[in-house]
Amino acid sequence: MVRILESTSFCFAKNEDKHNEDAILEPKLVANGLVLAVADGVGSYPGADLASLSAIEHLNSLNSSSEINQFGNVFTDIHSKVVGLSQYKTDYEKASTTLTYLFLDGEFLHVAHIGDCRAYIQTGSKLRQITKDHTKHQQLLDEKVFTKKQLKNVKGKNVITTAISAVVDMRYDTTSIRLEDITNDDGVATLFLMSDGAHEHWERNPRFSPNTMASTVKLGNALLRRIERYGPTDDYSFVSVKVQI
């Protein structure tokens, strides 16, 4: 049985005069488990906001753990909805979205991911990233062409290599992590999702005070203030939840 102890989320456009191409699913209890998600419409193509919204709406419509855990079906169904946007308007033929979602059941944390949003779990006072970015930068790191230090100030870090789209191949990652590997001694797990517009600011200095790190609400508020202080570079979304299992 999963019990929500604390949760906070935000989802904002970079500018007030543009559509927000991010979309989120706030933590939701489903079938004795919990699901949360973030999606980021790709590249400011027409329909990017509808693509991310389609992904979140589809996830929100699933009512059983068997549906949510059928990753292939989930991504295929969302892909069909995104491709189908062009039937409403031909300008939407390049509409694409990333998607990262987590499903927590009685045994595992299931992770499904495509694109450059990120999922984290909290370990003590630190956040540990549990997804890998599908970006050109990450590809160069994986191929050991450059080091992380060499790529630090190189442009193009947000160029993604796959998405839910009619115009690129869809290559998603999935994994399952046992609950004992994500919970503390009290059986508490703390999960985070961030779009690239949020995790860019988190990675500037991936820490806050111990008091702030102890609360998802305080951490979310502190990150939001940091983004607003430095100025957003993209739409920015954050979803967090602390649960007792």
TrEMBL record:
Q: Which residues form the PPM-type phosphatase domain?
A: 7-243
- Matching SUPFAM superfamilies, A to Z? PP2C-like
Q: Which Gene3D superfamilies match?
A: PPM-type phosphatase domain
- InterPro entries from the xrefs? PPM-type-like_dom_sf, PPM-type_phosphatase-like_dom
Query: Superkingdom of the source?
Result: Bacteria
For this entry, the protein name equals PPM-type phosphatase domain-containing protein
Q: Which organism is it from?
A: Photobacterium proteolyticum
